[in-house]
Amino acid sequence: MLCYHPNTLFAHNRKPQMGTSTSSTLSLLSIILFLSLSWAASASDSVHGAFLQCLSTHSQPSHPISAVLYTPDNSSYSSVLETYIRNLRFNTSTTPKPRLIITAAHESHIQAAIICSKKHGLQMKIRSGGHDYEGVSYVSEVPFFILDMFNLRSISVDIEDETAWVQAGATLGEIYYRIAEKSKTHGFPAGVCPTVGAGGHFSGGGYGNMMRKYGLSVDNIVDAELVDVNGQILNRKSMGEDLFWAITGGGGASYGVIVSYKIKLVKVPETVTVFRVARTLEQNATDIVYQWQKVADKVDDGLFIRLTMDVVNGSRSGEKTVRATFLSLFLGNLDVLLNIMDANLPELGLQTSDCTEMSWVESVLFWTNFATGTPVETLLDRNPQVLTHLKRKSDYLKKPIPKAGLEGIWKKMIELQTPAMTFNPYGGKMAEISPSATPFPHRAGNLCKIQYATNWDEDGSEAAERYINLTRQLYSYMTPFVSKSPREAFLNYRDLDLGINHNGKNSYLEGRVYGIKYFKKNFDRLVYIKTKVDPGNFFRNEQSIPTLPY
User: Phi/psi at 440 (nearest 5 deg)?
Assistant: First the structure.
């Protein structure tokens, strides 16, 4: 929209004559503005209409695309859009909305979307589960539509072969449930949030509480199906090893539309043991956290102890303190776990009463804060337990933070109050896999990955800016303690503070800023593959892999 300030209507100091001339000028400007806006709206409607016609033309009679199209004038449009928005920061009246949502139910719908988007210049955003922390899968500043994958959610488990084909729209909870349905001694190393979509989770790396034993999700993917920029359906053999490598940790949305992944199942014992124990500063949290840093990446690789630190009310009225919560999964029984803990982290004082033995699939519910005894069918529920406004950031810790450093962090956290930090330990299998085996480079040499997490309930941009700023302050304070040159980050903890790609002439330089932090030395190979398979940069977003500038 064109905006005029009254003082800019006349370019010279000459005082304008009042009357007919002025009125004529203003009238002419009003007409020009009206015609410009009308033309823009007409052109937009024309493109939109042509896009819809194109989709219809490329629709297969056996799978009509009209049944999965939602335009803003459709009564279900808002509910379809909002159902998979997992961050309320991006569900406001001012959030840019898609011109169209295609809830693909067949591969031909994906093919038509790509072909017609290329032809008519409408940007495509690909959404599997909607958990992108920055809303990148369903928000854009340019005209766009959403290719929503939630209908493509089939899961085919082959226990004899110890594999499963999983479509991109399936949730992790659904995957875990279907595996457990077939076997009590199989699982898969992926995230602890059951409502996360497989497509984005797997293609960005995919980590969970079995990564010290089995690595990431991408370390256990053996095949994939993808629709490329030409609308062709490719598998690992036909796409080639370069492209397969890129979509197992480099972010699938930069290279095509992931339809499905073939995953390799892993063995789990019939009985696992879990615990959740919290200690405040008054309960010796500093010493426990310091010792945790020294052992968490070195203990038995079947033991994963996540450490979360947040600010809570202290024992004295009006005072705040820091709480350290230790949440664990051990792939074994209680007695063995207690022996390991006594030998490595006696400061925690873990007791038999703190621990619970259960099946692996039940442990998924425990880790998601469901009450013990919750039916495993709950994993099939696609509604998140908590829906709020949030900001996330990430870091990597290479060596333990000294006690004096920890005490300074506690002081800063109490000052800020809202942001929390979670430390996820590495070591084990993570330290054995080459940093170039997949695009995910954060392997040996990392003590843990840090997530900064801030949630809030207030609506509005002022509240958002305030809480985001608190998160940035804690991130800034942590600078001396974390990785450097580059300050590393995790792709699936999407953080647009690290840089935004406007996908113009400076796309490569803009992409390199965040790309080196997410992928380190693997960034150059990702760019080379991107340039080869998508030279026109059709598959793009605010933090996609760019093409080479020449």
Answer: -70, 115
**Separation of alpha carbons 206 and 176, rounded Å:** 14
Contact between residue 330 and residue 302 where contact means Cβ atoms under 8 Å apart = yes
Which pTM value belongs to this model?
0.91
Query: Is residue 257 over pLDDT 80?
Result: yes
pLDDT tens string 52-85: 999 999 999 999 999 999 999 999 999 999 999 9
d(CA 261, CA 151): 15
303-333 burial, b if ≥16 CB within 10 A, otherwise e?
Answer: bbbbbbbbbeebeeeeeebbbbbbbbbbbbe
Residues 6+ apart with CB under 8 A from 460: none
How is residue 65 written in tokens? 């695309």
- pLDDT of the residue at 44: 60
Handedness of CA 220, 187, 265, 301 (dihedral sign): positive
518 catalytic? Reply is no
Tell me if 173 sits within 8 A of 195, measured CB to CB.
yes
DSSP-assigned letter for residue 181 = H
CB within 8 A of 452, min separation 6: which ones?
A: 391, 392, 393, 394, 395, 419, 420, 421, 471, 474, 475
Pick the catalytic residue from 133, 214, 493, 518: 493
Phi, psi of 544 (to 5 degrees): -80, 170
User: Would you tell me how many other CB atoms lie within 10 Å of the CB of residue 195?
Assistant: 21
Two tokens, residue 254: 């930069």
Cα gap 331→132, rounded to integer Å: 30
Q: Which residues contact 239 (CB under 8 A, 6 or more apart)?
A: 224, 226, 228
Tokens representing 260 are: 């499905």
Q: Which of 103, 94, 100 lies closest to 120 in space, CA to CA?
A: 100
Q: pLDDT value at position 315? A: 85
Tell me the pLDDT of the chain averaged across its residues.
Answer: 93
What's the chain's length in residues?
A: 550
202 phi and psi angles, rounded to 5 deg: -70, -45
Residue 8 has what pLDDT? 30
Got the DSSP string for 10-46? --SSSPPPPSHHHHHHHHHHHHHHHHHHHHHHHHHHH
- Whether residue 174 contacts residue 153, with contact meaning beta carbons closer than 8 Å, is answered with yes
**Contact criterion met (CB below 8 Å) for 500 and 490:** no
Which DSSP symbol is given to 231? Answer: S
Structure tokens at 380: 């099939």
Listed in sequence order, the residues at least 6 apart from 39 whose beta carbon sits closer than 8 Å to its beta carbon are: none
